[in-house]
Structures are given as C-alpha cells and as structure tokens.
Amino acid sequence: MTSRVVIRSAVGDDADGVAAVRRAVYSYKVMSPAATRHMITVSAPKERFLALVAESGGELVAWGSAGLNIWTSEPGQSHTSIYVHPDHRKQGIGSALADRLHQHLSEVGAVRTRAFVHPDGLEFARNLGYDGTRQMHYAGVDPRALPDQPPTPDGIELVTMDQLDPRQAYTADSIASLDEPGDSPIDSIDYDRWVEEIWNGPAVDKSLSVAALAGDEVACFTAVETDSDRAWSGMTGTIPSYRGRGLAKLVKSVALRRCAEAGITAAYTSNDDENGPMLAINNWLGYRRVQTELGLLRPLGS
Ligand SMILES: CC(C)(COP(=O)(O)OP(=O)(O)OC[C@H]1O[C@@H](n2cnc3c(N)ncnc32)[C@H](O)[C@@H]1OP(=O)(O)O)[C@@H](O)C(=O)NCCC(=O)NCCS
C-alpha cells in the first residue's frame, strides 16, 4: 500500500463519501447517505462493530467493516464487508483493510466470518482464506412497468407501514426471518435493537412500505428503502400460516406502485439462490438479474 493511503476509523461525516464509493462499486445496493451515517454511528455494543475507511490523497476511496452477527443464536458468527473504488484497486488497500478487520474479529471472539464478493473479487477473497458456494442474486425492476396488481383476498387489509405499531411489524419480521436462507439462522432478534436499528432508523421509508393485515396481525409485509430515485427491498416476509396465498406478490405490487408514484425509476433486491419462492415472486414482478455475488466464509483464529 502506498504511503499516500491512510486507513482510519469511519465517522458519521464520512457518510457522503462512503455512499459515493458504494454506488461506484455496487450501483444496485441502494443505501442513502442518511442510512450510511446511521450504519456508521448506531450499533449494538455487543456487535463490536468496526468501520474503517481508506483515504488516498485526502479522498475517501474504500470502506471496510466487520462485526459480530447479533441476530443469530449461533455464537461467534460475524460479517465482513470491504469495497475499494475501482480506480484505486491493486494497491493493497483491500488486503490492509482485511488484515485489520480479521484481527479485530478474532479479538472480539468471532470464530467465522461471512462476506459476499463479486466474481472478479473471488481470487482476492480466496487468497485471504475465504471459501464457499452460496450465491446471492441481485435484480432490478423499473416500478413504472409492472404486471397487473393481483386482487386483495377477503379478510386482508393493505396498509402502509407508518400505520403499524412497531410490535406488529417486529413480530412478523422476526417470525418470517426464521425461514430466510443463510449461513446462520436469524433467530435472535432483540426487540429494542430492532427498534433502534430498523424501525427508528432512516433507511426504511414506512410510507412506501406495505403490510397485509389479517385483523391486527401482520400476515405479510415488504419494507422499502430509498435513495433519491432508487429503491431497495429491505425485507419481504409472510408468516408461515399465510404463505402461498399470493400476499407477498400483492404487497410488493402495491409498494412498487407507490415507489413509481414517488419518482423511483429503479428498484433493487437481493435473493439467496436457495430462496425459490422469493425468486419466483420477483421474476413475476419483472425483476431482471444485474449481478450474482458469491457468499463466502472464513474461519478465524482466537
Ligand atoms: C418468500 C416469502 C415472502 C413468500 O411469501 P408468500 O406470501 O408465500 O408468497 P406468494 O404466495 O405471494 O408467492 C409465492 C410464489 O412462490 C412460488 N413458490 C413457492 N415455493 C417455491 C419453491 N420452493 N420454489 C419455487 N417457487 C416457489 C409459489 O408458487 C408462488 O409463485 P406463483 O404464484 O407464481 O405460483 C415467504 O416464503 C417468507 O416469508 N419466507 C421467509 C423470509 C424470506 O426469505 N424473505 C425474503 C428475503 S429476500
């Protein structure tokens, strides 16, 4: 790494620079500067989140973060994320960030970390000890061109999420998340953390997010995050007793229409290759694949 490059802890005021690098690397992983600031500044103490940035000649050119996975009951699970602006690669910045992050994770008791990489980053990741075969598909749709909206079944009321009590939304999210494919089960979502990080965070636009209510119970919901004219699907979930009735298709149809009315021209999502139902729903909505990333794991020493 050249002497012009400085690695330091990220601070809230880096949000615009981090969001710009993120957009240059992943046009489809939508995260607004406000949500980026929240990610840098708000995390659970037990996550031991470390966020780093690299500057070259005073310009922010890379991001690296790592923390313990606090949404699972499996001990020692963690996540790592590194991205370097395309104009600043092959200078050792990614490796320097990885060294710092792996060391931090080992110090805070992680036994394994997970990262997603572009196919062109596979060799870099393998050289750092990552391996695995999971695939994550990213896809996008223009919400101004959607199939006809399905009818709303009897007994179901559609509401925007700003009309919900957080407990209602939390219950549906935590139950549906149990069945989301992944390396570790999402089975330990603490309500207060969820409120602070998700419900009260700036990422989700509750006026565009839609829930299907059966009485007082959220049967199905879809959470929308935005950054000016782009949107991201935060999470779509149907509680098990209401699955297979077209509710996820319906709430996403309604939410994407609301996005189009709000000026969104591209909506993106990510789905694990094993998530047959969600891939079927998104294919039906007209999502087209823009990227596949590889989900990799790396053991960590103590
Ligand atoms: C994915 C999920 C939201 C679907 O909810 P749902 O309300 O049952 O979905 P719908 O009834 O609207 O549509 C399901 C579609 O998947 C299809 N499907 C169901 N199982 C499938 C499978 N194993 N493989 C392929 N398609 C499948 C259904 O046939 C249906 O498509 P069709 O109408 O064209 O026939 C729900 O299963 C869930 O909450 N899963 C756990 C959370 C999760 O993974 N969320 C997505 C995170 S990216």
UniProtKB/TrEMBL annotation:
Transferase as UniProt keyword: yes
Gene Ontology molecular function: any one: acyltransferase activity, transferring groups other than amino-acyl groups
SUPFAM superfamilies assigned: Acyl-CoA N-acyltransferases (Nat) (SSF55729)
Record-linked InterPro entries: Acyl_CoA_acyltransferase, Bact_Acetyltransf, GNAT_dom
Alphabetical UniProt keywords: Acyltransferase, Transferase
CDD domains: NAT_SF (cd04301)
N-acetyltransferase domain boundaries: 5-153, 159-302
Name of the protein in its database record: L-amino acid N-acyltransferase YncA
Record organism: Kribbella steppae
